[in-house]
Specification:
It catalyses: L-dehydroascorbate + 2 glutathione = glutathione disulfide + L-ascorbate; RX + glutathione = an S-substituted glutathione + a halide anion + H(+). With 367 residues, the chain is mainly alpha-helical. Helices cover 40% and strands 5% of the residues. It has a 4-stranded mixed β-sheet with strand order 2-1-5-6, sandwiched between helices. It is globular.
């Protein structure tokens, strides 16, 4: 095979044909359907179903508190690559901050723009909002996230997704599955954390069954539902998915209405994984998903009072949520990277503001 053909082969994207709902695969929005196509094709060209199908994560190793493990918990050994735009990567930033892992696991955010080569790193001369939006600090010659993937596996043929958890000692990717990365963060580093962070429990024994039950339909219908609606290429696929999305938003609203008397979180008094996993979709809903993904049966700020109250409480009162939310990345990434949906890359001005203060309401709600 010639070097030109070899390079071309590496640039093709071959994808797994079906995700596994029970594993709740959590990829970045840079994930496409099965089969061949460019990196900006979200549904396989020629797929008459019009359905967006999410790829299963490829790297699935775990960091362990056992010092003899293949990937033991050590300060400074691991580096987290994220995008502020991506809801799946956003989960890991929230949990990293909630668990006090800032000095243990440094991170780098890619630029908000994603094109044919996938996520790229910001250049040294670019001024992009958000902490650590820089060139790759570990590999100065890397221009794109894909460079990490080919470094870990020269024959890699999947999507180049965030979050990506990198091991500096072994020079490889540990894991690129957000639902697993956040659970590693829950406990794996507790032996080297101050007591106050050891006591942050986001997956409590008494709520595990409820969290797992909620995770399944929240992932299928809401977290991934906005993508299945927005990337659909047939009217039938769009309507089927958007209607299910709003049925499940209605279901979430009812749960939050019932739990409100016990506390401000999903299950009332205790912040849990359910809050983290839902938040990253809901905070993007009005600024992006309503218009860009045609999820416009209702918006959050005027159509879901309990969801809206819950969202604003997390954003304005818990720094791990508000300080990791970067609306410029969110709005520009979707509208300027998804050329199939928005070929001219025009970013809508509204809604204004991106999120309302806790005491503010839109006019319709005030009346």
């Amino acid at each position: 095979m010639s070097s030109v053909l070899a390079r071309a082969r590496l640039q093709l994207v071959h994808l797994t044909t079906k995700s596994k709902p029970q594993a709740t695969p959590a990829q970045s929005e840079s994930t496409m359907s099965s089969g061949k196509g460019t990196i900006t094709d979200w549904v396989k060209p020629g797929d008459t179903s019009g359905e967006f199908k999410r790829q299963v994560s490829s790297f699935r190793n775990w960091i362990s508190s056992d010092p003899n493990a293949e990937f033991p918990a050590e300060k400074g050994r691991y580096h987290l690559y994220v995008s502020y735009a991506c809801p799946w990567a956003h989960r890991t930033l929230i949990v990293r901050k909630l668990k006090g892992l800032e000095e243990i696991i440094p991170f780098t955010s890619v630029h908000w723009h994603m094109a044919e080569k996938g996520w790229r790193f910001a250049t040294a001369d670019e001024q992009v909002p958000g902490e650590n939006v820089t060139p790759d600090p570990l590999h100065p010659n890397n221009t794109h996230l894909r460079d990490l993937y080919f470094s870990a596996n020269p024959n890699y043929e999947g999507r180049f997704t965030v979050p990506t958890l990198w091991d500096k000692k072994k020079q490889t990717i540990v894991n690129n599955e957000s639902s697993e990365i956040i659970r590693m963060f829950y406990t794996a580093f507790d032996d080297i954390l101050p007591e106050q962070y050891k006591n942050v429990v986001l997956y409590p024994d008494g709520l595990k069954d409820k969290i797992e039950e909620v995770n399944k339909w929240t992932y299928d219908d809401i977290n991934n539902g906005v993508y299945k609606s927005g990337f659909a290429t047939t009217q039938e696929a769009y309507e089927r998915n958007v209607e299910q999305l709003f049925k499940s938003l209605d279901r979430t609203e009812a749960i939050l209405a019932e739990s409100a008397s016990r506390g401000p979180f999903y299950f009332g008094a205790q912040l849990t994984e359910a809050d983290v996993r839902l938040y990253t979709t809901i905070v993007r809903f009005d600024p992006v998903y309503v218009q860009h993904f045609k999820c416009n049966i209702k918006d959050i700020r005027s159509g879901y009072p309990h969801l809206h109250r819950w969202l604003r409480h997390l954003y304005w009162t818990i720094p791990a949520f508000g300080e990791t939310t970067q609306f410029e990345h969110i709005k520009k990434h979707y509208t300027k990277s998804h050329k199939q949906i928005n070929p001219f890359g025009i970013t809508p001005v509204g809604p204004v503001p991106d999120i309302l203060k806790e005491e503010e309401e839109v006019g319709a709600v005030k009346k």
